[in-house]
User: Which sequence fits this backbone?
């Protein structure tokens, strides 16, 4: 074997340990070994020596192989466990195998030990591979179930969110035709309402595109200039109603360059800043959005705070759900925060929201630095 094996020997007689060592050396094994002969030393060796193979005598003065097997099971130690002992009954040997031992070797026939170790290690490697494949399959099945569930919900809700503004436009066109002889103020009012429905439809389509791109495209890493990035995001928000009333407070603390996906960060910031603008509290003397970015070589911590209308406590656990709308003021499809969560997840980051109704909302993001 090319790998240097770490062999833990549960053996109270040093001469027997030396004999086992010589048999393995004769077969050109590369290994280090540690001999223990008490329960305490065995438990410590499992943690500190972290063996690749355990060779255990059956009967020691205050300890035995059955107890050792139980300790391995309880500690979730998954390495070959081979009983190397004197004469034992066939019934006892079978019982040890049932308890989890990989093999048993009589000290009177140690020539079989090298092959037994080879075989046990191979079996464990195969078992680990099988378990890894099962775990991967389970993850894929869970992901497929998630995708199918979301797709069903997506098709149903999107069909409604697309048809609703289209129906409004058609209805307004028909009503406008009946009022063609009315004054320009009436016709302009109809145009404004039609424009509102079209903008709502455009917003929904953009959210669908963002969702699709996030699931289908890989991360495109580039250096992020947060000052410019945030300024550009606010620049895109200037046509949202109430934007001119917003007081912006930006603080950036940067100890290292930051690299991430420019597009995904833009979508994340756009959604969160737009929410802060749309759900501002007009009853307050001033409307504030405060963005803080703290960057180190490992990650960036981003907080977006506003003193808007807030989110009811009972809705906080659902705000990242697909198509959930936490406010009656919402005119979107309920995809914004869901897309934020999915994009942050794609970046291997985290996002959380805390809020106090009528007082404040705080969004906290942690995004790894792909430096």
Assistant:
């Amino acid at each position: 074997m090319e790998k240097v094996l770490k062999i833990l020997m549960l053996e109270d007689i040093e001469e027997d340990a030396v004999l086992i060592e010589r048999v393995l050396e004769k077969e050109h094994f590369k290994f280090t070994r540690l001999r223990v002969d008490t329960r305490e030393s065995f438990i410590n060796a499992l943690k500190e020596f972290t063996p690749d193979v355990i060779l255990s005598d059956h009967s020691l003065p205050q300890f035995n192989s059955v107890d050792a097997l139980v300790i391995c099971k309880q500690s979730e130690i998954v390495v070959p466990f081979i009983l190397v002992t004197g004469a034992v009954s066939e019934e006892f040997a079978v019982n040890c195998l049932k308890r989890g031992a990989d093999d048993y070797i009589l000290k009177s026939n140690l020539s079989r030990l090298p092959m037994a170790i080879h075989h046990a290690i191979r079996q464990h490697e195969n078992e680990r591979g099988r378990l890894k494949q099962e775990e991967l399959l389970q993850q894929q099945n869970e992901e497929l179930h998630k995708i199918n569930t979301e797709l069903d919900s997506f098709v149903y809700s999107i069909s409604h969110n697309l048809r609703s503004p289209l129906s409004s436009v058609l209805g307004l066109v028909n009503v406008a035709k009946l009022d063609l002889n009315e004054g320009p103020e009436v016709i302009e009012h109809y145009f404004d309402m039609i424009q509102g429905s079209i903008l709502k439809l455009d917003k929904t389509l953009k959210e669908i595109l963002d969702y699709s791109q996030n699931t289908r495209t890989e991360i495109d890493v580039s250096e992020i200039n947060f000052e410019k990035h945030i300024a550009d995001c606010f620049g895109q928000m200037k046509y949202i109603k109430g934007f001119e009333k917003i007081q912006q407070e930006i603080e950036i603390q940067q100890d290292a360059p930051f690299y991430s996906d420019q597009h995904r960060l833009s979508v994340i910031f756009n959604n969160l800043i737009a929410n802060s603008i749309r759900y501002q509290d007009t009853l307050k003397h001033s409307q504030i959005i405060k963005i803080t970015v703290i960057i180190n070589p490992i990650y960036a911590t981003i907080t977006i705070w506003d003193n808007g209308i807030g989110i009811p406590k009972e809705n906080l656990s659902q705000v990242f759900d697909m198509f959930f709308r936490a406010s009656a003021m919402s005119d979107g499809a309920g995809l914004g925060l869901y897309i934020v969560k999915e994009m942050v997840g794609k970046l291997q980051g985290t996002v959380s929201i805390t809020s106090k109704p009528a007082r404040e909302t705080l969004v906290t993001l942690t995004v790894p630095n792909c430096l």
About this structure: The CA atoms of residues 120 and 300 lie 47 Å apart. The chain has a mean pLDDT of 86.
